[in-house]
Amino acid sequence: MQTVFIATGIFLTYLFLAHYFSYTILKNKTLKKRKWGLNICCGRTDGGGVNADIKKHKDLPDFVLIKDVYNLPFTDKQFKYVLCSHTIEHVDDPKRFYQELKRVGGERYYCCPAPLGYFRRFSCHSYT
User: Is this model's pTM higher than 0.85 or not?
Assistant: First the structure.
């Protein structure tokens, strides 16, 4: 029984550290990489350009409230760089959301837990 408690404690510690790494260290490193034309689903972070989300979490410069993530209020290729951090894995139709980000942005950078969640390393990928 003690082994089960120890294993559970190790697993929960791993989940906490993985979450912290992904949402704090990796995201901050990504934000500092460049000025992002569009920081979609920005939460509380300023990407340096347009910050957009479905909910206003705090006052951010150039904030745009998004009503529909599949029909963004931006023109085709309006942004050179788009940051989509910890979002695409939460939408109902990731392919449609991906296509919409492709429409509004040149280089798109997706930061999310890799497939199978916390059992693999976290990653960020760039697409043009």
Answer: no
